[in-house]
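Course exercise 7: structure representation. Students receive a sequence record and must write out the corresponding structure in token form. The form below is the worked example handed out in class, using aldehyde oxygenase (deformylating) (290 residues). Read each field label carefully; the graders check that inputs and outputs are placed in the correct fields and that the protein name is recorded exactly as given.

STUDENT ID: A-19
EXERCISE PROTEIN: aldehyde oxygenase (deformylating)
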Amino acid sequence: MLPYATAAEAEAALGRAMTRAEAAWLCYSASMPDHLLYCHNVAILLLLYTLAPLPLALLELRARAAPDGVAAAVMRPSTYKLQPRAHLSPAAFLRCYLDTGRVLLLTVGTLSLVSYPAVKMVGIRTGLPLPSAGEVAAQMLVYLLVEDYLGYWIHRLLHTRWGYDNIHRVHHEFTAPFGYAAPYAHWAEVLILGVPAFTGPAIVPCHMTTLWLWFVLRHLEAIDIHSGFNFPFNPTKLIPFYGGAQHHDYHHRVGGQSQSNFSSVFTFCDYLYGTDKGYRYHKASLEKAC
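STUDENT ANSWER:
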């Protein structure tokens, strides 16, 4: 809840006129308790999970019924599918969506209710001024690097025999991943993976809007690497050292015995710790076959 009753008070405290974004933030959040602003993460996550993978799901379903012919092959979604022989029914999509939505609501919703004191303790702020674009970009980079490194080691631990058999095997039910399967996991895994996601903001505190943006970005990235499609026009291909769908699809294809491609965002850790050798051999084999 912002300590300003009017825009004039806010501008007097800032010592300047508010930007349009700051005026909109003041109008929206001035009378709203901070813990409710933090709980927006739950609604944002569920809305994003519902809408963002939908185009990919429609492409997956269209790939099953695409017509034959040379002209159609150019537009056929299966042209870009990493595992073109793997197809899911609408019922499988619905089951995955409902099961995941239930787990996200119970775990993330409950966690949001009990973790707010920690959010305030690390210094996540809700007031004015809003952060600059440069500040937000720098914080996003830090959060991605921190989450990628910690997530790599947690992922490796989840592939130990106990971790896989008791927790991680749920996520690997789909050997050919797709967008809605990105957060499909055991409830314990959802909670465990929240640790590396929140560590970055704990180390480098940010504004509440930046925290929202971080969770949106992280979830979109997870959907992208689980998409099952390798689109040549995907803008993420311009990001240096970004793993992408092709990198993570190999991890799912190998399955529970996989000891390769544990990184969630970049490929640094897999290269440094030698856990990409199988993937590199696989790619070299494909290139020779072509």
